[in-house]
């Protein structure tokens, strides 16, 4: 019984993360689409939402790398967990881009096109890093 409750809670958590990613993609797409005419379409909105959902679903809450004490080596045995690093940085970029997009929308600002492109790139790079992190973490867990 306890295992079922735990699994159900984990599924709900992952669905919530996917919905947060989709909302993030929607906010960035709404801002970018309002500034760049070529990206004003329902297809663009849908692609951004799907990518955000996949990125947040896979890239947040990745299984960590097993911890091993260095054998007599102080510092040489430490290893950067690539999946954890990509997940953290990717989540930061995606969330920052979404946050700035919401700010621009709510405050009715019209930033220079350079900043709009940087917001878009930050979000795309962030979500891509999350997807890669999730793939790495799940591949090594098998």
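Sequence proposed for the structure above (142 residues):
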């Amino acid at each position: 019984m306890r295992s079922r409750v735990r699994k159900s809670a984990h599924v709900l958590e992952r669905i919530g993360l996917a919905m947060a990613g989709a909302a993030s993609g929607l906010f960035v797409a709404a801002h970018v689409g309002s500034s760049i005419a070529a990206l004003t379409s329902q297809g663009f909105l849908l692609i951004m939402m799907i990518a955000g959902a996949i990125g947040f679903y896979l890239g947040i809450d990745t299984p960590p790398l097993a911890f091993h004490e260095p054998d007599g080596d102080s510092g040489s045995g430490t290893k950067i967990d690539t999946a954890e690093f990509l997940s953290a940085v990717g989540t930061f970029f995606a969330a920052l881009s979404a946050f700035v997009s919401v700010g621009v929308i709510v405050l009715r600002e019209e930033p220079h096109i350079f900043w709009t492109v940087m917001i878009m790139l930050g979000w795309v790079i962030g979500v891509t890093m999350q997807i890669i992190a999730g793939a790495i973490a799940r591949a090594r867990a098998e």
